[in-house]
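Morning F.,

Quick status update on the modeling queue. The single chain you submitted on Monday has been processed. Sequence for confirmation:
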Amino acid sequence: MLCIKCIIKPHMRVTQTCQNLSLRLLTTKGEISQSLTFEVPSYFSLCDKLLQNQKLAQDLVETMTVHYDFLSESEETSLMNELDPYMKKLHYEFDHWDDAIHGYRETERMNWNEANNKILDRVRNIAFPPEVSPIKYVHILDLDKKGWIKPHIDAVRFCGDTIAGLSLLTDSIMRLVQDKNKDLYADVLLKRRSLYIMKAVARFEYTHEILSNENSIFKDEKIFKDRRISVICRNEPDSKYKDR
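C-alpha coordinates below.
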Protein backbone atom coordinates (compact mmCIF):
# COMPACT_ATOMS: atom_id res chain seq x y z
CA MET A 1 0.00 0.00 0.00
CA LEU A 2 1.41 3.40 -0.99
CA CYS A 3 1.19 6.09 1.66
CA ILE A 4 1.01 9.84 1.23
CA LYS A 5 4.69 10.16 2.11
CA CYS A 6 5.56 8.06 -0.96
CA ILE A 7 3.52 9.88 -3.57
CA ILE A 8 4.13 13.55 -2.82
CA LYS A 9 7.07 15.90 -2.69
CA PRO A 10 6.92 18.98 -0.42
CA HIS A 11 7.20 22.58 -1.60
CA MET A 12 7.39 25.92 0.12
CA ARG A 13 4.00 27.28 1.22
CA VAL A 14 2.71 30.31 -0.60
CA THR A 15 1.24 32.78 1.86
CA GLN A 16 -0.22 35.40 -0.45
CA THR A 17 -3.99 35.75 -0.50
CA CYS A 18 -5.68 35.67 -3.87
CA GLN A 19 -7.78 38.78 -4.44
CA ASN A 20 -11.42 38.61 -5.38
CA LEU A 21 -11.26 39.36 -9.08
CA SER A 22 -13.93 39.03 -11.75
CA LEU A 23 -13.32 38.85 -15.47
CA ARG A 24 -11.81 42.36 -15.27
CA LEU A 25 -8.43 43.28 -13.87
CA LEU A 26 -6.72 46.50 -12.80
CA THR A 27 -3.22 47.49 -13.89
CA THR A 28 -0.72 49.56 -11.92
CA LYS A 29 -1.20 52.38 -14.41
CA GLY A 30 -4.74 52.98 -13.27
CA GLU A 31 -8.17 51.54 -13.75
CA ILE A 32 -7.45 50.07 -17.17
CA SER A 33 -9.67 47.06 -17.67
CA GLN A 34 -8.93 44.06 -19.81
CA SER A 35 -11.52 41.46 -20.74
CA LEU A 36 -10.62 37.82 -20.65
CA THR A 37 -11.21 35.81 -23.80
CA PHE A 38 -12.33 32.71 -21.88
CA GLU A 39 -14.72 32.00 -19.05
CA VAL A 40 -13.40 31.46 -15.53
CA PRO A 41 -15.63 29.00 -13.64
CA SER A 42 -17.11 30.24 -10.37
CA TYR A 43 -15.09 27.70 -8.38
CA PHE A 44 -11.85 29.44 -9.43
CA SER A 45 -10.26 32.56 -7.95
CA LEU A 46 -7.20 33.56 -9.99
CA CYS A 47 -4.63 35.99 -8.67
CA ASP A 48 -4.06 39.15 -10.69
CA LYS A 49 -0.63 38.14 -12.01
CA LEU A 50 -2.06 34.93 -13.40
CA LEU A 51 -4.96 36.82 -15.00
CA GLN A 52 -2.47 39.07 -16.75
CA ASN A 53 -1.15 36.05 -18.64
CA GLN A 54 -4.25 34.71 -20.32
CA LYS A 55 -2.52 31.75 -21.93
CA LEU A 56 -1.27 30.44 -18.57
CA ALA A 57 -4.60 31.17 -16.91
CA GLN A 58 -6.57 29.38 -19.60
CA ASP A 59 -4.25 26.36 -19.53
CA LEU A 60 -4.83 26.02 -15.80
CA VAL A 61 -8.60 26.52 -15.93
CA GLU A 62 -8.99 23.96 -18.70
CA THR A 63 -7.02 21.26 -16.85
CA MET A 64 -8.60 21.63 -13.40
CA THR A 65 -12.33 21.00 -13.35
CA VAL A 66 -14.76 20.70 -10.45
CA HIS A 67 -18.19 19.07 -10.61
CA TYR A 68 -20.40 20.35 -7.80
CA ASP A 69 -23.08 18.02 -6.36
CA PHE A 70 -21.45 15.04 -8.01
CA LEU A 71 -22.61 12.97 -5.02
CA SER A 72 -26.02 12.94 -3.46
CA GLU A 73 -26.35 13.04 0.32
CA SER A 74 -27.25 9.35 0.34
CA GLU A 75 -24.17 8.49 -1.75
CA GLU A 76 -21.92 10.40 0.62
CA THR A 77 -23.50 8.51 3.52
CA SER A 78 -22.96 5.21 1.71
CA LEU A 79 -19.25 5.92 1.26
CA MET A 80 -18.85 7.05 4.87
CA ASN A 81 -20.66 3.99 6.21
CA GLU A 82 -18.09 1.81 4.51
CA LEU A 83 -15.04 3.94 5.31
CA ASP A 84 -15.64 5.26 8.80
CA PRO A 85 -15.48 2.03 10.82
CA TYR A 86 -11.94 1.43 9.56
CA MET A 87 -10.75 5.05 9.58
CA LYS A 88 -11.77 5.54 13.21
CA LYS A 89 -9.38 2.76 14.22
CA LEU A 90 -6.47 4.86 12.96
CA HIS A 91 -4.81 7.78 14.71
CA TYR A 92 -4.33 11.20 13.18
CA GLU A 93 -0.70 12.00 12.52
CA PHE A 94 0.49 15.53 13.19
CA ASP A 95 4.23 15.06 12.67
CA HIS A 96 4.73 14.00 9.08
CA TRP A 97 8.21 12.78 8.25
CA ASP A 98 8.86 15.48 5.63
CA ASP A 99 6.46 18.11 7.01
CA ALA A 100 4.26 17.83 3.91
CA ILE A 101 0.98 17.15 5.66
CA HIS A 102 -0.43 17.91 9.11
CA GLY A 103 -3.25 16.11 10.90
CA TYR A 104 -4.14 13.15 8.71
CA ARG A 105 -4.79 9.44 8.54
CA GLU A 106 -4.94 7.40 5.36
CA THR A 107 -5.46 4.06 3.73
CA GLU A 108 -5.97 2.47 0.33
CA ARG A 109 -8.91 0.32 -0.63
CA MET A 110 -9.56 -1.96 -3.59
CA ASN A 111 -12.74 -3.81 -2.58
CA TRP A 112 -16.00 -1.89 -2.13
CA ASN A 113 -19.62 -2.81 -1.70
CA GLU A 114 -21.84 -2.81 -4.77
CA ALA A 115 -23.32 0.65 -4.26
CA ASN A 116 -19.97 2.32 -3.72
CA ASN A 117 -18.43 0.47 -6.65
CA LYS A 118 -21.04 2.13 -8.85
CA ILE A 119 -20.08 5.55 -7.47
CA LEU A 120 -16.39 4.95 -8.16
CA ASP A 121 -17.17 3.67 -11.64
CA ARG A 122 -18.88 7.01 -12.32
CA VAL A 123 -15.72 8.80 -11.18
CA ARG A 124 -13.51 6.65 -13.40
CA ASN A 125 -15.80 7.00 -16.41
CA ILE A 126 -15.74 10.79 -16.27
CA ALA A 127 -12.06 11.14 -15.31
CA PHE A 128 -10.30 8.56 -17.50
CA PRO A 129 -10.64 7.78 -21.21
CA PRO A 130 -11.45 4.13 -22.09
CA GLU A 131 -7.85 3.39 -23.09
CA VAL A 132 -6.46 4.59 -19.73
CA SER A 133 -6.00 2.10 -16.87
CA PRO A 134 -7.04 3.35 -13.43
CA ILE A 135 -5.03 2.20 -10.43
CA LYS A 136 -7.06 -0.53 -8.71
CA TYR A 137 -6.43 0.83 -5.23
CA VAL A 138 -8.35 3.97 -4.27
CA HIS A 139 -6.52 6.33 -1.93
CA ILE A 140 -8.42 7.54 1.14
CA LEU A 141 -7.11 10.61 2.96
CA ASP A 142 -8.81 11.66 6.19
CA LEU A 143 -7.82 15.20 7.20
CA ASP A 144 -8.55 16.47 10.71
CA LYS A 145 -10.43 19.77 10.93
CA LYS A 146 -7.23 21.32 12.27
CA GLY A 147 -5.12 19.70 9.57
CA TRP A 148 -3.88 20.85 6.20
CA ILE A 149 -1.93 19.58 3.22
CA LYS A 150 1.13 21.55 2.17
CA PRO A 151 2.12 22.29 -1.44
CA HIS A 152 3.19 19.23 -3.42
CA ILE A 153 3.10 17.55 -6.81
CA ASP A 154 2.27 13.86 -6.75
CA ALA A 155 5.27 11.79 -7.79
CA VAL A 156 5.10 10.61 -11.41
CA ARG A 157 6.53 7.20 -10.57
CA PHE A 158 3.43 6.28 -8.57
CA CYS A 159 0.52 7.78 -10.51
CA GLY A 160 -0.28 8.98 -14.00
CA ASP A 161 -1.46 12.20 -15.58
CA THR A 162 -4.91 12.44 -13.98
CA ILE A 163 -6.07 12.72 -10.37
CA ALA A 164 -9.78 12.60 -9.52
CA GLY A 165 -10.96 13.25 -5.98
CA LEU A 166 -14.29 13.21 -4.16
CA SER A 167 -14.57 15.69 -1.28
CA LEU A 168 -16.62 14.37 1.64
CA LEU A 169 -17.99 15.98 4.83
CA THR A 170 -16.92 19.61 4.32
CA ASP A 171 -16.06 22.45 1.98
CA SER A 172 -12.36 23.29 1.60
CA ILE A 173 -10.01 25.36 -0.51
CA MET A 174 -7.34 23.89 -2.76
CA ARG A 175 -4.56 26.25 -3.79
CA LEU A 176 -2.68 25.70 -7.04
CA VAL A 177 0.73 27.39 -7.39
CA GLN A 178 2.91 27.30 -10.47
CA ASP A 179 5.98 25.29 -9.52
CA LYS A 180 8.42 27.53 -11.41
CA ASN A 181 6.88 30.87 -10.44
CA LYS A 182 5.31 31.09 -7.01
CA ASP A 183 3.70 34.44 -7.88
CA LEU A 184 1.22 32.63 -10.13
CA TYR A 185 -1.50 30.91 -8.16
CA ALA A 186 -5.21 30.22 -7.95
CA ASP A 187 -7.65 29.07 -5.30
CA VAL A 188 -10.29 26.45 -6.02
CA LEU A 189 -13.39 26.02 -3.86
CA LEU A 190 -14.04 22.31 -3.34
CA LYS A 191 -17.56 22.06 -2.03
CA ARG A 192 -18.79 19.11 -0.04
CA ARG A 193 -19.79 16.17 -2.28
CA SER A 194 -17.97 17.62 -5.29
CA LEU A 195 -15.56 15.88 -7.65
CA TYR A 196 -12.37 17.53 -8.87
CA ILE A 197 -10.34 16.32 -11.84
CA MET A 198 -6.76 17.50 -12.18
CA LYS A 199 -4.74 16.64 -15.27
CA ALA A 200 -1.98 17.81 -17.62
CA VAL A 201 -0.88 21.38 -16.73
CA ALA A 202 -2.66 21.47 -13.34
CA ARG A 203 -1.29 18.04 -12.49
CA PHE A 204 2.37 18.51 -13.48
CA GLU A 205 3.11 22.24 -13.48
CA TYR A 206 1.30 23.38 -10.32
CA THR A 207 1.62 22.31 -6.72
CA HIS A 208 -1.64 21.70 -4.93
CA GLU A 209 -2.51 22.00 -1.26
CA ILE A 210 -5.51 22.11 1.07
CA LEU A 211 -5.48 25.30 3.12
CA SER A 212 -5.74 25.37 6.89
CA ASN A 213 -8.72 27.09 8.49
CA GLU A 214 -6.52 30.08 9.29
CA ASN A 215 -5.94 30.65 5.57
CA SER A 216 -9.25 29.43 4.11
CA ILE A 217 -10.66 32.54 2.43
CA PHE A 218 -12.29 32.37 -0.99
CA LYS A 219 -13.30 35.58 -2.75
CA ASP A 220 -13.30 37.42 0.58
CA GLU A 221 -15.49 34.76 2.22
CA LYS A 222 -14.24 32.70 5.14
CA ILE A 223 -14.58 28.98 4.44
CA PHE A 224 -14.57 26.77 7.53
CA LYS A 225 -13.03 23.38 6.87
CA ASP A 226 -14.21 20.62 9.17
CA ARG A 227 -13.01 17.03 9.04
CA ARG A 228 -12.43 16.22 5.36
CA ILE A 229 -12.21 12.84 3.66
CA SER A 230 -11.01 12.67 0.08
CA VAL A 231 -11.55 9.57 -2.02
CA ILE A 232 -8.96 9.73 -4.78
CA CYS A 233 -8.72 7.76 -8.01
CA ARG A 234 -5.57 7.84 -10.14
CA ASN A 235 -4.43 6.18 -13.33
CA GLU A 236 -1.37 4.01 -13.77
CA PRO A 237 1.94 5.89 -14.14
CA ASP A 238 3.74 6.14 -17.45
CA SER A 239 6.30 3.34 -17.69
CA LYS A 240 9.05 5.82 -18.54
CA TYR A 241 8.84 7.18 -14.97
CA LYS A 242 9.01 3.86 -13.14
CA ASP A 243 12.64 4.32 -12.04
CA ARG A 244 12.29 7.94 -10.87
